[in-house]
Design goal:
The complex is a heterotrimer of chains A (242), B (643) and C (292).
Chain A lengths: L1 E10 L2 E11 L4 E5 L6 H8 L7 E6 L2 E2 L5 H6 L2 E4 L11 H8 L1 H5 L7 H11 L1 H5 L10 H13 L5 E5 L7 H16 L3 E6 L2 H7 L2 E6 L2 E7 H5 L2 H8 L6
Parallel strand pairs in A: 3-8, 3-9, 6-7, 7-8
Antiparallel strand pairs in A: 1-2, 1-4, 4-5, 9-10
Helix pairs in contact in A: 3-7
Chain B lengths: L1 H5 L1 H16 L3 H26 L7 H19 L3 H23 L4 H21 L1 H4 L5 E2 L4 E2 L2 E2 L2 H23 L2 H11 L1 H6 L4 H27 L1 E2 L6 H14 L4 H19 L1 H24 L5 H20 L7 H15 L3 H14 L31 E12 L2 E12 L3 E5 L6 H8 L7 E6 L2 E2 L5 H6 L2 E3 L12 H8 L8 H5 L3 H20 L15 H13 L5 E5 L7 H16 L3 E5 L3 H7 L2 E6 L2 E6 L1 H6 L1 H8 L2
Helix pairs in contact in B: 2-8, 3-8, 3-11, 3-12, 3-13, 4-5, 4-6, 4-11, 5-11, 9-11, 9-20, 12-13, 12-16, 12-17, 14-15, 20-22, 20-23
Chain C lengths: L1 H31 L6 H17 L5 H29 L3 H23 L15 E3 L2 E3 L1 H23 L1 H11 L1 H6 L4 H23 L10 H15 L4 H21 L7 H13 L14
Antiparallel strand pairs in C: 1-2
Classes of the chains: A alpha/beta (242), B alpha/beta (643), C mainly alpha (292).
Amino acid sequence: MLSIKNLEAGYGKVKVLHGISIDVPKGQVITLIGSNGAGKTTTMRAITGMIKPTGGEVTLSGEKIDGYDSYKIARLGLAHSPEGRRVFTTMSVTDNLLLGAFPRFTGSRPKGDIKEDLEKSLEMFPRLKERRNQLAGTLSGGEQQMLAMARAVMLNPEIILLDEPSMGLAPILVEEVFKIISNLKSQGVTMLLVEQFAAAALNVADYGYVLENGKIATHGPAAKLKDDPAVKAAYLGGASSH
Amino acid sequence: MMKLKSHIPLLIAIVGLFCLPLFIHNPYYIHLAETILIYTILLFGLDIVVGYIGQVSLGHAALFGIGSYTAGVLYFHFGWAIWGTIPASIIVTAIFGGILALPALKVIGPYLAMVTLAFGTIAQILINEMTWLTEGPLGIKIPKPDLMGVPMTKAEYFWLVSVVLIISLIVVDRFVKSQVGRAFEALRDSPIACDCMGVSVYRFKVIAFVISAGFAGLAGCLYAYSEQYISPNTYNNELAVLFLLGIIMGGRKSRLGAAIGAAIIVLLPKLLDDINLFRIVASIIAIVVVAGAVMALSKKLTTPRRVAIPIAGVVGLAAFSFWLNSISDWRLSIFGFMILLVVYYLQNGIVGFTKSFYQSMVGKAKTTRGEDAEVVDDSISFISTVANQNTGAELLKVESLLMQFGGLKALNNVDLSVKRGTIHGLIGPNGSGKSTMMNVLTGIYVPTAGSVLYAGESVVGKTSSDIALSGIARTFQNVQLFGEMTAIQNILVGLHHTFKSNIVEIALHLPRYKREEAEAHARALALLKFVGLDDLANEEARNLPYGKQRLLEIARALALDPELLLLDEPAAGLTSPDIKELLRIIRKIRDSGITFILIEHHMDVVMSVCDTVSVLDFGQKIAEGKPAEVQADEKVIHAYLGT
Amino acid sequence: MDMFAQILSSGIAVGMIYAVIAFGFQLTFSTSGTLNFGQGEALMLGALVGLTCVDTFGMNYWVMIPIVCIFGMIQGSFVELIGVRPAIKIKSEFGWIMSTIALGIIFKNVAENVWGRDALPFPSPLPMEPMTFLGANILPMEILVVFGALAMMLLVEFFNRKTIYGKAVVATANDRDAAGLMGINTSMVITFSYALSSLTAAFAGVLIAPLTLTGAMMGGALGLKAFAVAIIGGLSSGMGIIVGGLILGIVETATGFYISTGYKDVPGLILLLLVLAYKPSGLFGKSAIKKV
């Protein structure tokens, strides 16, 4: 479904990604883990057009999307719940969700029944249902994360990219968030999950990639990676010294 | 000897200037030349705001007018002579420049432009309405000044203006090349870094406006005697825009640019009054541009697409001129088009464009130090060994620090104690409050509650620049170098605090200033050598490779003679060899007694160089101790990995 | 009391015009962080085009309004395309400030050449006899101005809140990157916000034209004062703009009456400078937190 080959990207003079390759098959949950500064968010941004890749290829369902503007990529069915949530703070929960379905309103994506999907979304995220008319800026961190994910679901996307959904959340909320991710997984939604919390991510994913200093250090089935000492080293240093 | 050679073109120009009235007797042309000289003085001043602090000012026509009217009013009501009105105009206009600076302190960009526009409008209205002082719309007539009891001739006044111009040229040039000029550019490139290097943004903004206004006032005064009649409607917004066009088109940060710009804005309206002359000039320009484009295309320096618009523009202009019978009605549109052209295609003005065009044709000049290669004086101790070598004593004490933004507690009841001579690491996941802590320590944020004691004194409520001057220096997570300035100039800004000389000493190049400049220069070079950048001293900071930029930031921070150095993710984005170099430098600095707080994600860096490590999570301290202890701490592992 | 009511009523009418123009500043600033220094000229062109429709083509005032609005949209898109978009691309603030100023100058000069430099009278669609209310003379046209301005702003608010396209505009203003992730073409949103901004200015132009003289000169002072209103009210607050407009309009009218018409413009400008000196985010705006 989503295929990334030798992706290179950075910010101005700083090159962050030095050629990474990731494969996201349809119906699976793939996770990209690594410590801060490794380049996880840069990878997400490069895929979804927030920054332009300087090398390599990104293919979505056979179409080359590297270099496309964000809005074009969204209209092709790739939903992104970005780092830091980025909900529209001056708009209500309902409006945020409706905007998630924007391409469906304008005809770039199959329309379906937007109203019904809205209600279904609110059922899946009960905290949001209670606050449907509240301004998104007044929601707590955990609720905003729910909103960002629900908003991504509203696109009826081919694939959802989740960027650090656990960031800044208390452990209880992190649990809730991952429950929802499991829920989506059981509905067959394809996902690429970038996470700082390796443990939780590897629990829910099928396959994992470990990013270190802009390169893939190791990858494998999630269950195997969980016990791999290389993962711990990537985060806390120790065994491997440069 | 080298210096004299490079001044030859200037000396020729000066001689030519003085000879002008001897060869040209038509008063019309002398007057035209005089106006160009006067506008040049004004543009010197405007350049300080536009070129050096990098802001748009629409208020300089009003300042020009205040200068003229100071002279006019003092002459009309009190009979003052020019020898009094010149200093008076300078001082009064400078004061108004200071007044203009006040609302402009906290704002930049479009807001600042609007402040200057509002100021200009108010000034014009006041001059028009306060008829008891200014005679309002009637205007004031001013005769040529007296020289030894007899009114000056046209030629004599011209020479007076020329002398004033040359003095202004020297003064402006000395200013902008001094620590004051560097402070202006630092302000433009990164106000936050500027404050954190001990150079107060507010203070220098005011100074810039005051000096700029002084020149405008001087020009205004000379203009009054030149025109011999002043009235309010001259000093309108159209003139203000014209001045801007002049300096941008001529070239910012260049005295020659100011002169070229002045010539353009004086001669252009005259050109537009004569349609035949305009047709000739427009055709010549079109031919030159097309020829230049063809040359550039043949050397593959540009693409057809990029030259399409400028060519269409100048050819269209030439065609337009043949179609019309009179172009003076379209004067303003021509100005408008010229502004558009300059903003998009001639950003560095004629001077800048000519330089780069010449370089690209002839081959880039070597930017290395070449003949002027300065030998680094290795005997200079560039890191002042911290006087109080009380290693182990407490230098920084943070107690119960609370930093709240609305509902979010970025720092929640944090205690921190940093001992002298140690490297104290500060780690934690994204959003845990590390950078917030840095910003509180350097005065960028004022804490909601709690105390921060540095060497026994509270830091809370002090300005960033005061904190920097008291001994806390920092680097930034996203490099905040002064991009358009060279590496050595960046360090010289850090050394600003070593300069005690004032405006007069700079203008006259008195011994104290020259000594301070030489010492700072030597020290800056030594600092550059310390971080391995001495051969890149004259390279613009923004052109340096990323790793070297980070090292330059550290060298700049050292220039402050700090006791406490805060490094914010110094290893971010660095390759392995760069990191080794970084560690070596950090250790060397620590050996001279400077204390560190180091924010880092690179665990290897933290483990190998820190004496103590504090761990933050969700704005709270969750662990503290020696690196190895912290690395094995359960809570820390959980915070990072989530197991 | 009569004088007070008169100042109030005239001030309100003038203030609402400033508010409508300021509204245009807010539209473009919120979505793109830029604004049109030639906004006053957009108003002036709207008024002159309206005058031509009514005088030369004999159109009915009410029929002319939509035509002027369409003209405004085209003019606004032109400004964005030529002046703003290239500057945003090269990330040059200096660029769009100078180019919108330049375009303003060009428009004014073109207007001078096409319509002449004299101020022209604009035929009023409503009777010119003043009505009296609480001791004040109020022209029917002034009431139309107030209602027209309010109606325009309410219409845009309605668009923003109730239609999905309007929500897309608000989303772009709130977070441009995130809006892009929703599939919203944010470049187009910015062009649209400029089109809308000039539309409101042109509309304001035909509203105020019957009350004053119409000519190439009318844009200058209006633009600056509208900016003052936008700053005083706060560039992020719609309510603030109406309040700011009313404050400025009333203070200005009072100054003109009690001191002299020459000084009329001064208090507003001084108020602008004071607000920028002490609370740059405006009386109703929110201050931004520095991020380093």
